[in-house]
Amino acid sequence: MWWNFVGRTQEEIVQARDDWAKGTRFGEVKGYDGAPLRAPALPETPLKPRGRVR
């Protein structure tokens, strides 16, 4: 898990972040008056999976 994105691979996290930035794939929060939060930049080092591998 990175920020609020869950993925099995670095590529899935990158895709989720891109989708969030574009406003696709994720719904909107009803009743929230502010602009959507921006996802922070990805770390420069690859994300490391944790836990057991299936």
TrEMBL record:
User: What domain of life is recorded for the organism?
Assistant: Bacteria
Q: Where is this region: Disordered?
A: 35-54
Which named protein is this? Pirin
The beginning of the lineage is: Bacteria, Bacillati, Actinomycetota, Actinomycetes, Kitasatosporales
